[in-house]
Inverse folding.
């Protein structure tokens, strides 16, 4: 009987772990910031700093829409003011996104991985 209880407990625990509530993470570079009724950043993955410096915003956005490697994130005002275009970020976000291209979703946390070239130049002056 004890073996049966342990087996049931193991199955329940494995189901709970597999259905965890952690938010997904999206990593990339901030290409654009928009402020209207909400504060938004456009983050594109699978690009390099060279891409940001050598290609136009329209070209990068078009490629990202085609390859589905971009997302708009709504963030709070304090985060919006802290972030700059060109920064590499890791965004933890809600699971469900608006069905737009690129998708729009609420961010729960934004972590700066690498500063933008613009900020590095200001720091060195």
């Amino acid at each position: 009987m004890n073996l049966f209880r342990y087996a049931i407990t193991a199955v329940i625990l494995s189901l709970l772990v597999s259905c965890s509530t952690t938010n997904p993470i999206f990593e990339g570079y901030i290409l654009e910031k928009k402020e209207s009724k909400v504060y938004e950043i456009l983050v594109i993955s699978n690009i390099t700093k060279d891409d940001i410096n050598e290609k136009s915003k329209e070209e990068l956005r078009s490629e990202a829409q085609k390859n589905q490697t971009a997302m708009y994130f709504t963030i709070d005002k304090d985060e919006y003011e802290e972030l700059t275009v060109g920064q590499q970020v890791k965004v933890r976000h809600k699971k469900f996104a608006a069905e737009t291209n690129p998708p729009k979703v609420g961010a729960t946390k934004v972590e700066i991985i690498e500063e933008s070239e613009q900020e590095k130049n200001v720091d060195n002056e």
Summary: DSSP finds five helices and five strands in the chain.
